[in-house]
Amino acid sequence: MRNESMLKYLISDMDHTLLHNDGRLDLPTISAVRQSSIKLCLASARNPYSMVEFINQLGLTGPQLAMNGALIFQVYAGKVQVLRECAISRELARQLAIELQSLYPEVDFTWITRDHWYIPKMTPAMREEMKYSGVQPVIGRQLQDTAAPDQIVLIIKDQQLFSEVQHHLQQRFSDLSIHSSGDGYLTINAAGVNKGNLVQYLIDHGIQRSEIAGVGDDQNDLPLLQVVGHSLAVANAIPEVKTQVTEVINSNEEDGIAQFLSQFID
Question: SUPFAM superfamilies from the entry (predicted)?
Answer without folding.
Answer: HAD-like
